[in-house]
Design a protein that fits this description.
With 288 residues, this protein is of the alpha+beta class. It has helices at residues 2-6, 15-23, 27-40, 57-77, 93-98, 102-110, 121-132, 239-248, 263-273; strands spanning 52-53, 82-83, 115-116, 136-146, 151-156, 170-174, 184-188, 194-203, 209-219, 229-234, 255-259, 277-281. The protein has nine helices and twelve strands. The strands form three sheets. It has a six-stranded antiparallel beta barrel with strand order 4-5-10-9-8-11. It has a three-stranded antiparallel beta sheet with strand order 1-6-7. Strands 2-3 form a two-stranded parallel sheet. Strand 8 (194-203) and strand 9 form a beta hairpin. The longest helix is centred in the first third of the chain and has 21 residues, at 57-77.
Amino acid sequence: MFTSHFGLHVEHLEIDDLQQCVAEVDQSAIEERLELIRNLFHFPPPGSDPIAGPVDPEELSWAARVSIGMDRLIDDFRLSGLAYYYRGRPGTLNERLGCSLIVGSSLLTGRGVPIAGEFDLKTCAAMLIMDRLGAGGSFAELHPADFADGFVLVGHDGPHHVGIANGPPVLRGLSVLHGKAGRGPSVEFAIRNGPITMFGLTQTMNGQFKFVLAEGQSLAGSIPATGNTNTRGCFRPDIRTFIERWSLAGPTHHFALGVGWKIPVLEKLAGTLGIPCQVVARESGGQD
């Protein structure tokens, strides 16, 4: 489907390919990457979540090494993006590797090489499109809804587009990663306040891709200190109706979350590619 609709070549890699790249990283490169990480991220005191604490220096050093290995993997295979998932067997070398990709993935995503967790290739493509439109494109899903104040938390654990963070992105050390084996540094932030667009790339029952789109607002306000990204998303006409309409449009549970209102250009892209497009909530040029 990706070849026929987008003209993409999909390269199938093994975690051993990454392991080889990581094994070749020297200490001087690690120190340079650690300096970049310390300058980019904020390291706050622990919040209320008992599994989210300070970042362990040894785990941060390992994450920096893996980050450099990921850069080399991207270069070796000339990748425009990467979707990954490794469940992990406790105590194995590959578990340690597979649970240490979040920092490197977020740095790559912020540089325009989208990295999608949970092996979600469709959302990786949506993130790539959003990035090329100047919107960023962070890996996201719908989190808990606050019906009283009219917003839904939109975010995810794992890789994110640090280039659209609302202030310095945060690094927290998780004793248990969310939804996968292992532990290590995890990225937390809300995306910039103001206009936002959700772009879901899904499939129809007859084997076509489909765009599911929504525009809204990123609201100011606190987010849970869990080591995950979370953004307070407000969507028309109200949050209860929006979630129902979004769900009935048939998206996958992940989507690319970006800044700005991008539905007009995404509709044109869908038309050019011959891909069906459904708008769930619109701010640009009127309301659906």
